[in-house]
Amino acid sequence: MAVPKNVYVRALRKAAQTLGSVEALRAHLQVSMNQLAGWLHGEAPPPDVVFLKVVDLLAEEELAVIKRGLRDQSDQSAAE
Hints:
Helices cover 79% and strands 0% of the residues. The chain has one domain. It has helices at residues 5-19, 22-29, 33-40, 48-79. The protein starts with a helix and ends with a helix.
């Protein structure tokens, strides 16, 4: 099954936002800025290994957000 290229672009942009910049994402992925720019503009999909690194990064961030939310809920319950 083919993956729509906008999925790659959206994931890469979200990862750059999560890390704080496109440069931080480039360093995290250990790729050239030219490669990353092409992927961000949808010119070509990133290699699977790179895309999986992006997915891992986003999943880790989502898990951290969930954990913070659960911790905040627990703290609020304890304060009541």
